[in-house]
Amino acid sequence: MTQPKRIAILGSTGSIGTQTLDVIRQHPEDFEVEVLTAQNNCDLLISQALEFKPNAVVIGNEANYQKVKEALIPQDIKVFAGQKAIAQVVEMDTIDVVLTALVGYSGLIPTVHAIKAGKQIALANKETLVVAGEIITALAKENGVNIYPVDSEHSAIFQCLVGEFHNPIEKIILTASGGPFRGKDRDYLQTVTREQALKHPNWDMGAKITIDSASLMNKGLEVIEAKWLFGLKTEQIEVVVHPQSIIHSLVQFEDGSIKAQLGPPDMRIPIQFALSYPHRLKSDFERFDFTKYPQLTFEQPDMKTFRNLQLAFDALAKGGNAPCVLNAANEIAVAAFLNREVGFLEMSDLIEETLAKASFVAHPSLEDYVASDAEARTITENLIKSKV
């Protein structure tokens, strides 16, 4: 690459954001940090800004604005605050790539603004496509914007498709670790704790995505995301449990050939590929040693016990605003589980009840998605109150 790409990182203090900065730290000649945003972690945001000297930072929680401003204004770094500022800052002329690593629904509107401004997107916020995939993909096409997947599974599919874009996909196979409760039955899951659910066997992630992985909702969201990223039908997407997390996903073509992308479970690899594409940059990341993994195993997911994955497939098949409702209900249910207000299995019950009660919109606009998200959250919150 001749000139460094100027990167805006939305959610720079989270797991993906900090690992993205690690990638940039290793390649200062290839990438520059243009914008950093965080919701609450102002201390880490200040530390990151002092190291990387971005043009601007945004702190989502306006209560922390003064602290961030006082720390960074002497460094000639612009400081903004609030959710609207996050959506506006991505439109800056000096940005080449926007990496969206915000958690949940909060990534939707900033991503829309970035696409409309013609910025290339490195997408770590799967919920953007879960909530409004049809609108987002159409908007990207209209504005000549590429969406590069950062999730390890979708990056694997993308990497398998390089050089194959003219060959039709028969199906894709998304791999799942199975999470900390793989093989457990419903009796066991009735009593699992927050602490148990937060212990993922292979990946180091934020609390929300770790709970989603334990319940298999994360895989369900990835199924919906894959449909929009790769233009697939529901029946072209398969999930297989692969406990070692070495094969990150596979593509099967019409001649029966299957391509897979392998590597150690390190999110910096797909992050770097999304930022550097079409180039591969040298890294000092861990190399995979086949001798340490004499067996790579696979099994079918248990969708009767882990019902969230089936609910996601059902929402995708129904279409319209159903995936948006699914996502909103899940975000509220996960927050309630983390706050010890509901049990692990009750999250699926809440999501299913919300899907049944929420208004269905077959052909939603962006405004309909916003309204559906708000309605679903209210329904789920009321269901939780009624159970307490």
TrEMBL record:
<dbReference type="InterPro" id="IPR026877">
    <property type="entry name" value="DXPR_C"/>
</dbReference>
<feature type="binding site">
    <location>
        <position position="177"/>
    </location>
    <ligand>
        <name>1-deoxy-D-xylulose 5-phosphate</name>
    </ligand>
</feature>
<feature type="binding site">
    <location>
        <position position="15"/>
    </location>
    <ligand>
        <name>NADPH</name>
    </ligand>
</feature>
<feature type="binding site">
    <location>
        <position position="14"/>
    </location>
    <ligand>
        <name>NADPH</name>
    </ligand>
</feature>
<dbReference type="InterPro" id="IPR036291">
    <property type="entry name" value="NAD(P)-bd_dom_sf"/>
</dbReference>
<feature type="binding site">
    <location>
        <position position="126"/>
    </location>
    <ligand>
        <name>1-deoxy-D-xylulose 5-phosphate</name>
    </ligand>
</feature>
<feature type="binding site">
    <location>
        <position position="153"/>
    </location>
    <ligand>
        <name>Mn(2+)</name>
    </ligand>
</feature>
<feature type="binding site">
    <location>
        <position position="222"/>
    </location>
    <ligand>
        <name>Mn(2+)</name>
    </ligand>
</feature>
<feature type="domain" description="1-deoxy-D-xylulose 5-phosphate reductoisomerase N-terminal">
    <location>
        <begin position="7"/>
        <end position="133"/>
    </location>
</feature>
<protein>
    <recommendedName>
        <fullName>1-deoxy-D-xylulose 5-phosphate reductoisomerase</fullName>
        <ecNumber>1.1.1.267</ecNumber>
    </recommendedName>
</protein>
<feature type="binding site">
    <location>
        <position position="127"/>
    </location>
    <ligand>
        <name>NADPH</name>
    </ligand>
</feature>
<feature type="binding site">
    <location>
        <position position="151"/>
    </location>
    <ligand>
        <name>Mn(2+)</name>
    </ligand>
</feature>
<feature type="binding site">
    <location>
        <position position="13"/>
    </location>
    <ligand>
        <name>NADPH</name>
    </ligand>
</feature>
<keyword id="KW-0464">Manganese</keyword>
<keyword id="KW-0414">Isoprene biosynthesis</keyword>
<feature type="binding site">
    <location>
        <position position="16"/>
    </location>
    <ligand>
        <name>NADPH</name>
    </ligand>
</feature>
<feature type="binding site">
    <location>
        <position position="219"/>
    </location>
    <ligand>
        <name>1-deoxy-D-xylulose 5-phosphate</name>
    </ligand>
</feature>
<feature type="binding site">
    <location>
        <position position="218"/>
    </location>
    <ligand>
        <name>1-deoxy-D-xylulose 5-phosphate</name>
    </ligand>
</feature>
<feature type="domain" description="DXP reductoisomerase C-terminal">
    <location>
        <begin position="262"/>
        <end position="378"/>
    </location>
</feature>
<comment type="pathway">
    <text>Isoprenoid biosynthesis; isopentenyl diphosphate biosynthesis via DXP pathway; isopentenyl diphosphate from 1-deoxy-D-xylulose 5-phosphate: step 1/6.</text>
</comment>
<dbReference type="Pfam" id="PF08436">
    <property type="entry name" value="DXP_redisom_C"/>
</dbReference>
<dbReference type="Pfam" id="PF02670">
    <property type="entry name" value="DXP_reductoisom"/>
</dbReference>
<feature type="domain" description="1-deoxy-D-xylulose 5-phosphate reductoisomerase C-terminal">
    <location>
        <begin position="147"/>
        <end position="230"/>
    </location>
</feature>
<feature type="binding site">
    <location>
        <position position="206"/>
    </location>
    <ligand>
        <name>NADPH</name>
    </ligand>
</feature>
<dbReference type="InterPro" id="IPR036169">
    <property type="entry name" value="DXPR_C_sf"/>
</dbReference>
<feature type="binding site">
    <location>
        <position position="41"/>
    </location>
    <ligand>
        <name>NADPH</name>
    </ligand>
</feature>
<comment type="similarity">
    <text>Belongs to the DXR family.</text>
</comment>
<keyword id="KW-0460">Magnesium</keyword>
<keyword id="KW-0560">Oxidoreductase</keyword>
<feature type="binding site">
    <location>
        <position position="213"/>
    </location>
    <ligand>
        <name>1-deoxy-D-xylulose 5-phosphate</name>
    </ligand>
</feature>
<dbReference type="InterPro" id="IPR003821">
    <property type="entry name" value="DXP_reductoisomerase"/>
</dbReference>
<comment type="function">
    <text>Catalyzes the NADPH-dependent rearrangement and reduction of 1-deoxy-D-xylulose-5-phosphate (DXP) to 2-C-methyl-D-erythritol 4-phosphate (MEP).</text>
</comment>
<dbReference type="Pfam" id="PF13288">
    <property type="entry name" value="DXPR_C"/>
</dbReference>
<feature type="binding site">
    <location>
        <position position="153"/>
    </location>
    <ligand>
        <name>1-deoxy-D-xylulose 5-phosphate</name>
    </ligand>
</feature>
<feature type="binding site">
    <location>
        <position position="222"/>
    </location>
    <ligand>
        <name>1-deoxy-D-xylulose 5-phosphate</name>
    </ligand>
</feature>
<dbReference type="InterPro" id="IPR013644">
    <property type="entry name" value="DXP_reductoisomerase_C"/>
</dbReference>
<feature type="binding site">
    <location>
        <position position="200"/>
    </location>
    <ligand>
        <name>1-deoxy-D-xylulose 5-phosphate</name>
    </ligand>
</feature>
<keyword id="KW-0479">Metal-binding</keyword>
<feature type="binding site">
    <location>
        <position position="152"/>
    </location>
    <ligand>
        <name>1-deoxy-D-xylulose 5-phosphate</name>
    </ligand>
</feature>
<feature type="binding site">
    <location>
        <position position="125"/>
    </location>
    <ligand>
        <name>NADPH</name>
    </ligand>
</feature>
<keyword id="KW-0521">NADP</keyword>
<dbReference type="InterPro" id="IPR013512">
    <property type="entry name" value="DXP_reductoisomerase_N"/>
</dbReference>
